[in-house]
Amino acid sequence: QLQLQESGPGLVKSSETLSLTCTVSGGSISRSTNFWGWLRQPPGKGLEWIGSIHYSGSTSYKSSLQSRVTISVDTSKNQFSLELRSVTAADTAVYYCASLPLSNCVDIWGKGTTVTVSS
Amino acid sequence: QSALTQPASVSGSPGQSITISCTGTSSDIGSYNTVSWYQQHPGKAPQLIIYEVNKRPSGVSNRFSGSKSGNTASLTISGLQAEDEADYYCCSYAGYSTPYVFGTGAKVTVL
Fold first, then answer.
1. pLDDT confidence of B96, banded at 50, 70, 90?
2. Is there a contact between B3 and B52 (Cβ–Cβ < 8 Å)?
């Protein structure tokens, strides 16, 4: 059973960089029919896709975040990571990592990690 | 890419059936048979309950069913139970440039 687990700081200062890692267990991150993604949910609001990566390194990002986001993959550790630069209070959210089958929405979610941006 | 439109709230009595709509465009729901639905209880991660419009993952109750017509997808919950009270989100694949678009979310209340 595939499982995903987010890890990283729960508090980030405004204007700094938010960095999170997702560890995949119960399966290989190198499956060709899968993308791996980051999503977030601000307090009291809906779900937002941030970006996705294939094990080959191919990425796609939400256009409004593209200038601040980098997603990378480490196949040797079965992990993928998120960097979000120049954060503001608007980036405060629960961040989820997820599995995205090819041309499909999320099938498996991590438990989520809360990140608060402080001034 | 704009969010898919869902009603903010839907309610029903135990045992009744309710339907949640999810309206998109010809660029997302109208072009792909890859609509998914998620149930999210407070403080929990979303859980997949429908994928590819009308397929249920193993372990999901057959009281949940999905359908699509044109640019609108729908989730029906039959035999409503107290445990169904949660937020529900739809999601559609939307092509290479912006692959995924989510719905605005619908809160289901069991009266």
1. confident
2. no
